[in-house]
Amino acid sequence: MSFILAVANGLIELPWWGYLVTTLVLTHITIAGVTIYLHRHQAHRALELHPIISHFFRFWLWLTTGMVTREWAAVHRKHHAKVETPDDPHSPMVFGLKKVMWEGAELYRKGAADPEIIAKYGHGTPDDWVERNVYSKHTVLGIAIMLGIDLVLFGVIGLTIWAVQMAWIPFFAAGVINGLGHHSGYRNFQTDDTSTNILPWGILVGGEELHNNHHAYGTSAKLSSKWYEFDIGWMYIRIMEMLRLAEVRRLAPRVLIDAGKANCDLQTLQAVITHRYDVAARFGRTLMSTWRRELETVKANGSGIDTSRFKRWLQRGDLKADERADLEEVVKKSKVLETIYSMRQELAALWARSSASKEQLLHQLEDWCKRAEQSGIAGLRDFSKTLRGYAVPARA
Question: How many angstroms separate the CA atoms of 240 and 151, rounded?
């Protein structure tokens, strides 16, 4: 009888909150493994990890997720390469938010089952004996071992702990981040997709909540950008770096604005192109009140088109073909809207042109600033002064 009770209770008996804390700690280690090892280290090569740390995460993820490093990295790399197109493996813009939220793990598995994706995007991932013969070959074995460990340590309640472990990453990483992270939240950068930051404190999923920041600077080891954002994954990386267990390879370039600059130069051009997503976002924030006020005026004058759809265009920049046609019709009804719209399009075209020389692009940038300052629109005038101030930080 005592043996049966021991098996039921496990080797470790805890109060209810002890089991809760244990579950959170175990899932958090898995989250750290996903964001530090799979995402920043393997998929984007933003940092190097000491072999001991790298293999620990690989082993832990085998136990708690059954994910194969090469498959995960390949699917994620394709997501960035084909973001929000029909070829994106898990875009809510393509599959719908509900599908990605609740079946995100299935979309990952479908992508991982495509040999073309693995061959094209899975390069540079582990291919040693243990990977080929254990981790990749016996993915279910690791999960079964984790179940056994939880049952032995915690008894029957270990089954609940294990179930939470198994559901945590498929729901939060594959579902919430890939779903809500392209649907709801705030944007620091106007990237060419709908990525958002879900929360300013990246704790729940190790910093992955700062998804818009990541899409702006995909190869940066640090996901936070603003002073109020906290990327706990980055905190762990810095600790490991101090212990010489990690080496950061890439960070997002620092935005520097020199308020004293009166004219554009080649460094201004370089900084504007480098920080194009920040430039676009600042343009939107500076002109937002003017843009919305003019839309309300057009609506009040009876344009026949629902202008409320376009209130966030300066922030998001994402429109379907039919919506863009409607927007172009709306802006014709207001000189101010038409100017803001055309100037925004010209600004985007500036960093999209690859055939023009640096001198030609610089001339176009200076001409853009002069026309903005002469437009009679206060927001454009103010933004032009900011644009002239973009600078390249001095080398240390």
Answer: 32
